[in-house]
Amino acid sequence: MAGILQLLRDRQPRTRAELAQMTGLARSTVAARMEVLLASGLVSPLGEALSTGGRPPTVFAFNPSSRIIAAVDVGATHVRVAITDLASTIIVDRLETISIEDGPEAVLTNVAGITQELIAQSGRQLSELAGVGVGLPSPVDHATGRPMNPPIMPGWDGADVAGFLTGLMGGAPVLVDNDVNLMALGEHRTEFPDIDHLLFVKVATGIGAGVIIDGAIRRGAQGAAGDLGHIAVPGGRPVICRCGNTGCLEALASGRAIAAELTALGSPASSSGDVVALVRSADVRASQLLREAGRDLGRVLATCVSMLNPSVIVIGGQMAEAGEHLLAGIREVVYGRSLPLATQHLRIVTSRTMGHAGVLGGSTMVADHVLSREGLSSLI
Amino acid sequence: MAGILQLLRDRQPRTRAELAQMTGLARSTVAARMEVLLASGLVSPLGEALSTGGRPPTVFAFNPSSRIIAAVDVGATHVRVAITDLASTIIVDRLETISIEDGPEAVLTNVAGITQELIAQSGRQLSELAGVGVGLPSPVDHATGRPMNPPIMPGWDGADVAGFLTGLMGGAPVLVDNDVNLMALGEHRTEFPDIDHLLFVKVATGIGAGVIIDGAIRRGAQGAAGDLGHIAVPGGRPVICRCGNTGCLEALASGRAIAAELTALGSPASSSGDVVALVRSADVRASQLLREAGRDLGRVLATCVSMLNPSVIVIGGQMAEAGEHLLAGIREVVYGRSLPLATQHLRIVTSRTMGHAGVLGGSTMVADHVLSREGLSSLI
Q1: Contact present, B8 and B45 (Cβ < 8 Å)
Q2: Which of A32, A276, A329, B10 has a CA between 20 and 30 Å from the CA of residue A24?
Q3: pLDDT tens, B21-55?
Q4: Banded pLDDT at A51 (limits 50, 70, 90)
């Protein structure tokens, strides 16, 4: 069943005979499975194919609007919730202010309420919900969906996020991952589906990366891969970081660090948003600091390029909205520092999905799961 | 066919009925395929299983000694050639002096001669050769087996290593990869088969790494992944590197760099081997320099740990033979610098296969290929 569905997910309509040929299954098996898929609504008849004679065969297509997915991108101060179809096309979405420090029960109850409002707003039912994908600003044990050692999230360590949210959402499956992993997945699947090696770097209050290698997210042994924020910057200034070490990337190049420097220089700023606003208002110091932050990011990313040889580095997060200064600093150092073989085809770009990479990734994670052999039983 | 063979590669003998059950194939299909595998010698009958009544069924086992593999680990100044069975057990091996600067035709003709001598010495025939696995100290385009932009190998850029060697070795398939990728594969499969995330770092005249993520070698977009040697060391001394940049890891911590420093300090050394000999003779300066080289390696590896979250880092190459000083320096910095989540289960060890990781990896690469669905036709 999942095999047929995976073929149809490419949006190309096919006849039963084509599906039998492509899967290697007997025609009778394909016919029986198609009955189930048609009854579930996941596949729809789409008219008739051209025929060489006799009655023209019916063509069938995947029907992404047959179910909905809720995607939740939780940040320290904001949450974005989106309702999408099974092809991760956003139907409706909303950005709300929260405080992650309120703990998992308060935040997730709030998230569940927003989700139910958005489902109603999109004219759909909770019973049509295929699953919920959640990104958290923390390392996550992907198998259990529990945050591990979150640095900024009191009360969240080891919390059963998936179990609690499932209870609030009518029993729909809930999958949880690190927020930047989901941003990488969302950007990759939406904008760079043919690229096998991609790094997504989120530059906001903190700094983190999602690592796509050979086409899949790589989480590492404890789910901690991509933890760029506390890497020592080669040649970086010896600024003390809140982690206790000195010269960490986050202490030099994060939105928090730049805001603090601007404040000290007489241009008050308390957030990444303030930094972006100052750059847009042509504050020269803000632009200079942003370019230098780009160079510090570049010093660390040059190491990642040598180690992983990616084709694309995507810069996302709120600081990426500040224009070309950050990117110029990154490019200057990466292209100057890395070996030619690794950079001759390397592209360094800003996120094309901007604030939506996280919810696109959350939706993609759920669609991949519920349309797979293991997950399909929850839909049929 | 390959499915049955993959099951039997775990060395557990099985009956036809067990194989039918495990593969889901019809008993008649299994029986027909077993005939072909028995005729090829790749599988052998191993006596009779216990039976619940009637004639006891025959059990069958993979027969790794039915073919041989030649594994070739080419370095700048030495080549190691090994003859192994299909389970990568070394039958005979030899280390010979070469000069990579003689170019591909001279070096590979020499390699082919050594290989044929070793095949004769092990009492086997060229016709029993399943394939040849070659490691080169260069980035390699894995699909075509050609070295790309090799920094120290005049005449090798784009050379058809696989095609040339196949011609000298009776048409046996030849697979080529970067030498450190093969060391990582050999160490992983032989000593850490249950570990999914492993870095193998070769510290010798130069420095490079092989990257195992989610159980497989990751080569990156151009096959250049693991190129550690020219990464800028955070907090490293601004020594000028032969690549033109300053502060590269190789300029600080390679065998060549340490030998040059020892010479300048009055302890003449011209190679990694000389450095190892000085450490073993209790030369205090050599030990101190080796520990500081370990710290420089640790500064770069701490970044790799944050980025990739491996479970095991294996230190190999000739400098790893100098004892605990190098490892102590690496551990000191990595455990001090990385975040607790990424290091709580991290092991940093010296290679257990020592000089043989490369040939073990070359043999494993060939066995994986010729026993796979795509490669099996060359054996049967």
Answers
A1: no
A2: B10
A3: 888 888 888 999 999 999 999 999 987 766 667 77
A4: low
pLDDT confidence bin for B242, thresholds 50/70/90: confident
Secondary structure (3-state) at A221: coil
For chain B, the distance separating the N- and C-terminal CA atoms, rounded to the nearest angstrom, is: 10
Chosen for mutation from A341, A344, A346 (greatest number of chain B CBs closer than 10 Å) is: A341
Residues of A in contact with B197 (CB under 8 A): 220-221
- What 3-state class would DSSP assign to A74? strand
Question: Structural domains in chain B?
Answer: 2-62 (1.10.10.10), 66-179+358-378 (3.30.420.40), 184-354 (3.30.420.40)
User: What does the alpha-carbon distance between residue A30 and residue A1 come to, in Å, rounded to a whole number?
Assistant: 8
Interface contact A231-B306, CB threshold 8 A: yes
Axis-axis angle for helices A255-264, A284-308 (nearest 10): 150
Predicted pLDDT of residue A249: 96
**CA-based nearest residue to A63, from A28, A39, A79:** A39
Label each residue of chain B as H, E or C: CHHHHHHHCCCCCEEHHHHHHHHCCCHHHHHHHHHHHHHHCCEEEEEECCCCCCCCCEEEEECHHHCEEEEEEECCCEEEEEEECCCCCEEEEEEEECCHHHCHHHHHHHHHHHHHHHHHHCCCCHHHEEEEEEEECCCEECCCCEECCCCCCCCCCCCCHHHHHHHHCCCCCEEEEEHHHHHHHHHHHHHCCCCCCEEEEEECCCEEEEEEECCEECCCCCCCCCCHHHCECCCCCCCECCCCCECEHHHHHCHHHHHHHHHHCCCCCCCHHHHHHHHHCCCHHHHHHHHHHHHHHHHHHHHHHHHHCCCEEEEECHHHHHCHHHHHHHHHHHHHHCCHHHHCCCEEEECCCHHHHHHHHHHHHHHHHHCCCCCHHHCC
Closest CA to A317 of A269, A272, A260, A263: A272
* Secondary structure of A119-187 in HEC code, one letter for each residue: HHHCCCCHHHEEEEEEEECCCEECCCCEECCCCCCCCCCCCCHHHHHHHHCCCCCEEEEEHHHHHHHHH
Tokens matching residue A363: 């939706």
Asked if B311 and A221 come within 8 Å (Cβ–Cβ), the reply is yes
A130-156 burial, b at 16+ Cβ within 10 Å, e below that, comes to: bbbbbbbbbbbebeebbbbbbeebebb
- Which of B309, B312, B313 is the best residue to mutate to test the A interface, defined by the most A CB atoms within 10 Å of its own CB? B309
Which one-letter amino acid corresponds to residue A45?
P
Tokens, residue B279:
């450490």
The values of phi and psi at residue A216, to 5°, are -130, 155
Band (pLDDT 50/70/90 cuts) for residue A52 is low
Predicted-complex ipTM score: 0.90
pLDDT of residue B50: 65
Contact at CB, A222 and B337, closer than 8 angstroms: no
Rounded to 10 degrees, the C-alpha dihedral A275/A277/A278/A284 comes to 100
Q: Say if B197 is an interface residue toward chain A (CB within 8 Å).
A: yes
Kindly state the tokens that stand for B180.
């450190």
pLDDT on residue A179: 95
CA dist list (Å): A26 to A32, A78, B319, B352: 10, 51, 59, 51
Cα end-to-end distance, chain A, whole Å: 10
Amino acid B51: pLDDT: 63
Say whether residue B142 is in contact with chain A using an 8 A CB cutoff.
no
* Interface residue A226 vs chain B (CB under 8 A): yes
